[in-house]
Amino acid sequence: MQEGEIRYVTVHKGERRATDAALLPAVPSALRSVLDLVVSGEATSRAEIARRSGLARSTVGQQVDHLVGRGILQELGSSESVRGRPPRVLTLSPRAGTIAVADVDTLESRVAIADLTGRVIAQETVDIRVDAGPDAVLETVTGRLTSLLAAHERDPDRVREVVMGLPGPVDFQRGCPVQPTGMPGWDGYPVAEWLTRTFRAPAVVDNDSNLMALGEAGQDGMDTPLLCIKIATGIGAGVITTDGEVYRGADGAAGDIGHIPAVGGGDALCSCGNVGCVGAIASHRSILRGLGIPESTDDDPLYGVHVLAERVADNDPPAVRALRQAATEIGEIAAMLVYMFNPRTLVLGGPLSELRDDLLSGVRAAVYQRALPLATRKLTITTAQLGNGSGVHGGIALATRDVFSPEGIARMLVEDAEGAPAAGR
């Protein structure tokens, strides 16, 4: 959380008001230590917490009792067979709160709710186009999220954070899109404020490629620094640094690589108004347009994805040639990014990543031809492990990090202290 950033906390009668982070109460270091050890899995009992933290057992007991009383931790009997008094196991309570995530894409969106351990409780696909405008998209997406909360009996007053990914540049601090192409009505729209009013919880808005990169970075074998390129209606990239942070740039424009001039761009007109951009000749949409395949139909929002996959599987010459040419153009841009960021892992995501073999071979060939061995000797180039679920998992990762920050913990304690008793929720 940045200095002076506005967040929301509960006051009496369940209402919330904006408050500066500096006005939140300080979290006692002992309480933070106890919660950190339990959430990380490093300690699962009071004795282990005392041993690892160096805190007195009485202090540990007070903090554990406080967190259990607030419904943030739970203490259960162990199933292990031991002599004497059976040990009690501390875990994060599944009712400690809920995270709501929406990954909005051009043709359809994915929504999900998760508990604070990061476990996905439920998720759905929402068929609504982003060009329907912010009001229609937000009402539809938040309606689905609200329905998921109700269907799975998750307390709406314990939504700890809402995260939304959008397919365009985002001002992360202001929580709004900035001059996105193909998204009429979205420029400057206060998305985070809209979400906060709806869920009465802190809200974060980010670029969809950033969330995809975060989701992939959390998977086994995905070493950082990590560069994730999403090839969809446009082409975007997310960069995860060695310490796990998203590199967003000064104004949220980092990773908008679809508007970089392509080697074979020629006079192809891009949605940004320029010609020869890589997104104009190598995006999924541009390939479909070149092959005369409709991007979507009334019955199938992903019609183009399915038809292109079928044609490539059947070794249709025009389709295979178009895919390989796009892979080469993307590989040229990827080689430049490999020079700039020297990632340990390069991930290809989006609809084209489902056509794994042809896409990977073309990108790899260009990267290894263009980039020097120093930048590629330990580089792994692969496709997204989570498929189209990467953005949802990235949103969950971003939210849990915020929830368990010092400010997030303080906000959680304030909300639960001034709301109804935890045991009655």
Automatic annotation (TrEMBL):
InterPro entries assigned: ATPase_NBD, ROK, WH-like_DNA-bd_sf, WH_DNA-bd_sf
Domain of life: Bacteria
Coiled-coil regions listed in the entry: none
Annotated Gene3D superfamilies: 3.30.420.40, Winged helix-like DNA-binding domain superfamily/Winged helix DNA-binding domain (1.10.10.10)
Similarity comment: Belongs to the ROK (NagC/XylR) family.
The protein, known as: ROK family transcriptional regulator
